[in-house]
Each structure stands twice: as C-alpha cells, then as structure tokens.
Amino acid sequence: MKKNFRGKLGVAIASLGLLSTFAVTPAGATATLTGDLTFASSDGAASLNPAMGGSSFDEPFFNAAIPVYMSEAAKVSGANAPSAISLYSPTGSTAGKKGVVAGTYAVGASDVPMGTVVNGTNLDASILTGANAASTLTNYVQVPVVLGGVGMMYNLPSLNSKFKKTPVILNSAVLAGMYDGAITKWNNAAICHLNPKIVNLKKNKKGRVIRRTCALPSTTVVPVYRADGSGTSFIFSNYLNATQGANYKTSAGTEVYPNTTFNQGQVPSDGLGGQKNAGVAADVEQTVGGIGYVEYSYILLQHTLPAALIVNAKGKDVAVNPTTVAADAASFSASPPSESSAGVVSNFSIVNGAGAGDYPIAGYSWAIVREDWNGLGTVGGTSASLNSEKLVAKFLDWTVQSGAQGGQTVAQQQGYVPLPAYVTTLAEHQVSLMTYNAQSLALS
Amino acid sequence: MKTKETETHVAGSEVAERIRRSATSDRPYRFLLRGTALFFGAVIVLFVWSVLHTAWPALREFGFHMVTGSRWVPGTGPYGALPLLVDTLLTTLIALVIAVPVGLASALALLFLIPQRLRTTSSALVELLAAVPSVVYGLWGLWYLIPWLNKTLDPFLAGITGGAWPFNGPQEGFSVLLAGIVLSIMILPTIVAISRDVISVVPNDLIEGGLSLGATRSQVLVRVVLPSARTGILGAIALGAGRALGETIAVAMVIGSNPQLPRSLFSTGATLASTIATEFGEATGSTGSALAALALMLMIITAAVNAGARLLTKRALAHR
Amino acid sequence: MTDTLTDLPPDPILERRAEIQMRAAQTLGRRTWLSRVFLVALVAAFVLALVPLGSLIFALIQRGVSSISWPFLHTLPTQPSLVDQSAIGGIGNAIEGTVIIDFLAGLIAIPIAVLLGLYLSEASSRAANFLRAIIEIMTGLPSILLGVFAYEYVVVPMKTFSGMAGIVALSVLMVPLIAKASELSFRGVPATLREAGLALGARSSRVTRGVIIPAALPGMITGILLSLARAMGETAPLLLVIGASGNWTWSPLKQMSSLPLLTYNYSGSQYPTQRAAAWGVALTLVVMVMILSLGSRFVAARLRRERR
Q1: Tens-of-pLDDT digits for all 444 residues of chain A?
Q2: Which of these, A118, A142, A141, A116, lies nearest to A127 by C-alpha position?
C-alpha cells in the first residue's frame, strides 16, 4: 500500500515538473507538421509491421507509444489505421544503428546520432563501411524523439533511516573518480566534503555540537556500468568528457563502452556490468554500495533507491527530474542541433548546461531511418514501399508532437521530458526530408 | 556397405545371402539414409565454417594475443580473452568442486541407501532439476541467491579467511562464486544420472566379495565401488564440466559481466559464453569477429571435453 | 618329521592373516561407526542436492502462481507506464511463439534425426563412425553457438530477425539429441526381428517401416519429447536471432516472442510489476517443459505396456 502511494506521489511530482516544462517552452509554435493520424484504405497501413529497435533508453517510450499510436489512429481512420506494428526491441543503441543500416530495422534508435565524430574519429566507421548506399550517411534521416536525464542511482541502505531526505551530492570529479577506481569508499574525503549535511553530530551535555563526523559509510563503491554498447554510457561519458577534460575523453571509436572512457580503458576492477538500463538498475538494487547511471524513468520506478544530486556548472546541487532536465535543454536553445549536408548531426550534446537550475547529465535520443525507401527491397521485415515508408514517417512525426494525443504526452507518462519547441521544429523538419523515389511524401 | 546384422551373423549362409541381396536391392532407401547423413554432415560443416569464417578476421589481426591478452575492450579492442577463459575455467571448477562430491554421494545414496520405494521418486526429482530451463535458474539466482550470498554466504566465507584470499574484496553478490554455485546446481543432475549408471554396472561379485572379507559398507563403497567405476565417473564429471563450460544465460544473469581477471572468488567476471550473449547484439566491426573467435574457443574446449567424456563413459559402460 | 615341522619358521601368511583378523576385530567398532557416519553423510548429501530444487520450485510457485491468471495467459503484452504500472498485459503471444518455434523446429528436426538415427544404427563404415562421434559431441555443444550460426545464415540474408532463425537454431540443436536417442532405440530392436522380416522377403525399407520403427517407437518418442522439452527452454540462441514482438505472429518469417526470452527480459525490468510477472512467465514455461518431459515418461510407459 505504502509503495503504491509513493508510486503515485512520484507520478504526481513528475507531472508537476512537466507542467512547469510547458510553461518554459510552449510547444509546437513553429510546427510544420501536425502528426496526421488519417489513413485511407489505399495506404494499406492496417497490416504493415515495420520493425523498430535500438537504444534501451527509448524502450519505455516506444513500447508505450506504439499501441497508443495505433489506437489514436484507429479513432480517426477506423479499420484503415495501422494495427499490426510490432513492439520495439531494446537491443541497444549500436544495435539500432546496425539494424537500420542492415535493413533489419525500419527505425533504429540511438542515443548518439549516427556518424558522430569524437576526437577526429567517426564512431560508426565500422557500421558504415563500404561504398554502397546503405553505408552513406546522407541516405539517412535522424530525428530527435525523446529527451531524458541520466540519473546516478545509488544503494546505501545505512543512510536510509536518518538521511532519507538528504540525497548524496556528487560532482563530476567524484563520479570520474568512482568509475576509474580512484575513489573506492563512500566515505572518501571528497564525497564527505560535498555532503556537509550527512554528518553525525556529537553534542556536549548542553546540547551544543562539539564535533561533526562524516556519516557516509565506509562501504566500497561498486560502479555499475553497461556491459553492452550503450548510448546512455555515451551521455554519461560525454558529461565526464565535458567536465573533466582530457583525462576522460572518449578515445577512438569507444563511444559506447564506459570503461574505455576512463583511465585509458581500465574497467573499475570492482565494477559490475549490467545489461541495458534495466540491468544496471537491477544490479544497483542488488548491490550495497552500488552506483549506476540510468535513464530518469528507471529512477522514478525504483521506489526504494534514491538518485544523487549532481553539482552543476553553476555550482548548485540539482536533482534529476523533468524540470531540471528541461532547464538544461533550454540552456542550449541558442545553438540548436542541426544536420549538415554530409548527414552529421552537430550540437546535439546538452550536457553540463550553464543555467543555475540545470541538471547536467542529459541527452536526446534519435530515431534513424532511411531517407528514401525506393528500391530497398525489405526494410524491417516489411517490403519497402511508398505505403510502408509513409507509415513510418507519419509515426515518427506523431511521436514528436506535444498535443494531447501526441507522442510526447506518452513520453512524459514514461518519465521523459517533452522535447523543447526548438527541437520539435528540427524533428519535424527532419521527417519532412523523407522521400520516396525522390518525391516528397507530402505529409500534413 | 555391410550391415551390422550381416556382420554379426555370418553363419546361415543362404539366409545371409538373401538378406544381403534384399538389402542392396533397396536402393532408394539406402539413398535416403545416406542422403540424410550427407545433408546433416554438410550442416555441421557449414556450422563450423560459419564460426571459423566469422572469427578469421579477428584471429588474423590479433592472433595469439586473443588467448594471452588480458584486456577485453569491445568496440575497439584489444581483444584479449584471457580473463574470459580464466573465468570460464574458474566457474566450472567451482561448480565441479561442489557438484562432484554431492553428486557422487547422491548417486551412491540412490543406488544403495534410499529405500526401494523412494528410489524412483527420488531419481525423478533429480531429473526434474535437469529439465528446468537455464533462464529459470538465472532468475532464481538473481533474486534468491544474490540476497542470500550478500547476507549470509559471503560474510561467512570472508569470516573464515578473515577477509583474505580467496574471499577478499567487496561482496557484491554478483560474482564468479555465484556463477559457480548456480552452475553446480545445473550440472548436478548430469553427474548424478551418469555416475549412477556407471556405478550400477559395477559387478555385484566385487561388492559381495568386499563385504564377505569383513569390510563395512562404507569401505566397500569407497574402496571397491568407486575405484572400479572411476573411468565412468570421470566421464560423468567431464560431461558435467562440458555443460558448465558452455552454459550461457544463467551465467550471464549472475556473473556481473566484467571482463577482467578475477582477484578473488567475490570478483565479478565474464565467461566466453556469457560475453557472446551480452555483446553480440551490439557488436560492430571487429567486435563481431572477436566474439566469433570466442565462439571458436568455446567450441574447441567443449568439443574436446565432451569427446573425452564420451570416450570415458563408453569404456565404462562397455562392461555391461 | 615332527621335529622338522616344529622347526619350520612360522608361516608368514598365516601370521599376517592372524594379524589382519585381530586388526579387523579390534577396529570393527570404529569401522562400523565410521561407516554409519559415512552413510548418513551420503544421504545428507542427497538431501542437500534436493534443497535447491525445493527452493526453486517453492520460489516458482510462490511468486509465479500469483501472477498467473486466465487473461495473463491469453492476452497480448502491454507497456506499463508511470501512470499505470500494473498494465503489463499478458503473455499470450509468447506462449504462441514458443509453441510455434518449438513445433516447427521439431517438424524439421524429427524426420532428419530419425533417418540419421537409422543410418547410424545400420552403418558401420568409418565415415558413419566419424559422424556418430561428431553427433555425440554436438549434443554437448553450447547452444549459443547455434545462435551465432543462425544469425549468419538466416538473419543476415533475410535482413530481419525472425522466428525462422530461431527455428533453424533449435532444429540443429535437436537433430543430434533425437538422432542419438533413435539410434539407441533402433539398436535395441532384437536383430532376430529384423532378420525374420528380411527372411520373409521384405525389402529393408519395408522392414524398417513395418518392424523396426514400431519396435523402437517408445524409445524414439521419449527422445523426441525430451528434445522438444530441452529446445523449448533454450534462451541463448533465441536471444541472438528472434527479435521481439508484441503481436500475435503466425508467420515465422517475422519477429516473434517467446517465453524464455520474455523471462530473461522481464527478470531485470525496471517495472516491479514486470519483474514479478517474470516468475509467472517462468512458471508457465516450466509447466510446459514439464508436460513434455513427464509426457515422455508416460507415453513410453504406456507404449511399452501395450506392447506386452
């Protein structure tokens, strides 16, 4: 009963956060598309089943959005509406990109845009090999679909009773130290220094405090990382890279494995590798002293474990929630993400925003599709046709819409943050770039 | 081609001739059987080829370093599989250390001590363990054994050595030790069933001879029964080891997916099979090939162990 | 004469025997006691072996039964959300996928494996012996290797994850198991039966159909059902190749859902409701596997009884 109540409370808090998000960024002001849900029988959408998969960061979103999309479309188009779209496979960001290039996925989702170059190396060089059309970045359209914060979830039961309302505060230096093995105990001086409120007070007979000692336990820090290739790892690494500089920069091609990012590729020896976001959350839950990075909704759901407050660029300690993540995204509105003519997405990184209320570890997730399906044969298990491409384009367009029936409403029910208006504009623009046999799909 | 029967039955010449003729005149039937054998042979070749072929680029590029290197970094390399090999062998060893004594004791108990009417039920129960899918063992290990290790077993073991090797380091539940324990439970039915079979063919004369010389029952079991069944028991152990070496999902769920050389039994780790399972979906470029090289190593190791096991059990059961 | 007899040195063998007898008598009490302790330890070890089984079954039933209901078994899964965490839906399509994949894999594997078993039971050429050895080794190969194989030869050319790839992997897994079991049961058919058939002038294909297969049927069916049970619980190869599906998929050319994979995915879910449901999925799977493996015992026993 208690758990249930707390769950509802969490949702209430999340919704409150979302309301304020809307206040900051009124949605859809410059929208070019409206998330059209009408299907004619000539669209043949009812039986189409394009496979989607990739980033596990997106799994709760896509798996909630797909059925909602089908039922919303059915309200408008009746029997002509798509009704057979399969669930999303949370195989991981790299698998998402690999899948869309190989044609196994119609939509591949990744937390890192495809073709991103880090320190002079194209992270997807091994996926985009060869001179064929499938390996040419310009043949893809990349659409930002969700925005989410990455929370640092930790498991210190000894703090539960006395310091329940005082989450541990961490900064990027401490996080880097935990993951590269420099910080091995939770009562490390650097952590204690950041947490002046987590102290045991020794009082004299008059009730005056005569000594404060750090109340953090001497438990060993168990850094939990993603054992599989992961975009969430990229966001976290990207944050450390942005804040900690050269020591933590991603070296060639190592975007997706956090251990290669730290200390020149040494896994923290007491570290623990989890499968996908859910596996990391489960590992932290099972491990006293564990800390792990997971998408915000995973923290919201993990009623028993808190997320650390993170010291942001302005020196404020900020909790991960929709408001602070939205604030972080808003800090980057002056330099919105954009796709170059070569297909490279730039300015997508939104870590370490400059605002006082910004939660610094956040990122977008991207849906990647082939730009023109003509002559592709099979895409994501369905035959490539104008109809199947149109269905995917309409679906993607719908996912970025914020209205009452739009995909972003589903996203917020799953603990994501609705896309800020300037990103929705980009997303709609990207979808409108899709063509079939060089003809525009003429979406409305 | 000679049939088994004509070989063993050379006597009645006329009948044999008749049989031979009718056997050879039945061309389509022979053809079908040989065709099937050829077909499946081709599938096996294709199977081995697929692994070899995929692994080749990595083997050519990284060579022997793949076996001796101790850093495994998916995505970019280096692809040193030594930690994975060590963890594979270590988890199997732990499994054997637990399962062999318990399994042998159970086999002896089943054959000589359990009352007749409980015997069928008891063996059925042990075989039930074999039928449980490995993902269910993983689920159970994840949500039942980990809390137990965290609360009870790990502190207890660390207490024995005073926190010294091999029970040093943080107690995370997820560990090489846990993987070994889960594996021991999974291979127990194999060891019990096979060693029960090979022990049951130990000639009764030997047992009675021992008893009649005044040896106690335990002396007969330890000094007569076990030694005379030792080939078969070794075979049973090897079969169990073969299963433990290649077990994938249950291990992947409890070992902690950390491809590093273990520093203690509490260390997290990763085995050959679990690494393939966890990294295959995300593998790009050279990683896919390196994973296929892991598959090749796994294939060679398990094939060798299984071949040895078959040889030993066959020799032991030939007494019958 | 008598002098020489008494002059003889004492017989070392007799002396040794006396010594042994004395030792045996002296130590009898201790040895009996030790023996008793040892035997008790053996039984204790056996009981210990049953403890994990008990715990596992207890966990499965305790946690599994509560999440199983009729709607759970026949409806499609849904994605829970923060608004409605309990909306996990059912596992109907995972049961369907499991049954279809297992059934079709069996359909491919059984004829090949039975013919292969026949071949192995009749042939004794060097090639046949080699094939027999390879097939025996294959029964112990890790199933994940077959996932790699099916990925290379089905997923990559078909450009999609599919139930078919899982079917291919599982059928290659099953062939050696069934071939082995059928070879043994074919060999178990008395040679006299076959010779009687041949002596009546029947072709060997006729003898196989009319005499050997019926006689070997109980063993074969046991082997087939046990292999189906083993394949049904396999997760590792499916993890690499079948993808995921939230719909009823009747075509194996599409991505499918299956119980073992669902157990794996739910086991570490962020939604406590899905995590609890993992036990329901696992219990369903175990029940289905048990039906097959207990069924094999039952069918075999039944057929043997009818034979008599």
Answers
A1: 344 444 444 444 444 444 333 333 333 334 467 778 889 988 888 888 888 988 878 888 998 899 899 999 999 999 999 988 888 887 778 888 888 998 889 999 998 888 887 666 677 877 887 778 888 888 999 999 999 999 999 999 988 878 888 899 999 989 988 887 788 899 999 999 999 999 888 888 888 888 888 999 999 898 888 876 667 888 888 888 788 765 554 443 333 345 444 334 555 667 788 877 778 888 888 888 999 998 888 888 766 789 999 999 999 999 999 999 999 999 999 888 888 888 888 888 899 999 999 999 999 999 999 999 998 888 888 889 999 999 999 999 999 998 777 899 999 888 889 999 889 988 999 999 999 998 888 787
A2: A116
In angstroms, rounded to a whole number, what is the distance separating the alpha carbons of residues A167 and A154? 10
Closest-CA residue to A347 (of A26, A54, A116, A123): A116
Tell me whether residues A227 and B278 touch, CB distance under 8 A: yes
Is residue A272 domain-shared with residue A403, that is, in the same domain? no
Kindly state whether residues A310 and A249 are assigned to the same domain.
Answer: yes
**Same domain for A305 and A233:** yes
Chain B environment of C134 (Cβ under 8 Å): 44
Domain B63-318 indexed as CATH 1.10.3720.10: yes
- Map C163-209 to HEC letters: HHHHHHHHHHHHHHHHHHHHHHHHHHCCHHHHHHHHHCCCCHHHHHH
- Selected residue of A100, A178, A222 to mutate for chain B interface (largest B Cβ count, 10 A): A222
A37 and A61 in a common domain: yes
Q: What is the ipTM of this complex?
A: 0.89
Which residue in A230, A252, A288 is closest to B150 by CB distance? Answer: A288
What is the reported pTM? 0.85
Delimit the domains of chain B by residue range: 2-60, 63-318
Q: Where does residue A402 fall: left (phi above 0), alpha (psi -120 to 50 degrees), or beta otherwise? A: alpha
Chain A hits for C245, CB-CB cut-off 8 Å, are 86-87
Residues A324 and A423 in one domain: no
Q: Is there a domain that residue A11 lies in?
A: no
Asked if residue A211 and residue A323 are part of one domain, the reply reads yes
Give me the domain span that covers residue A303: 151-330
Rounded to the nearest angstrom, the minimum Cα separation between B98 and chain A is 25
Whether the CB of B154 is below 8 Å from some CB of chain A: the reply is no
- Verify that A291 and A391 share a domain, yes or no: no
Do B84 and C174 touch, CB atoms closer than 8 A?
no
Q: How far is B45 from chain A (nearest CA, A)?
A: 26
> Number of structural domains, chain A?
2
On whether residue A131 sits in a domain, the answer given is yes
For residues A214 and A227, membership in a common domain is answered with yes
C255:A279 CB<8 A:
no
Bond into A336 cis (ω within 30): no
Instruction: For residue A138, tell me if it sits in a domain.
Output: yes
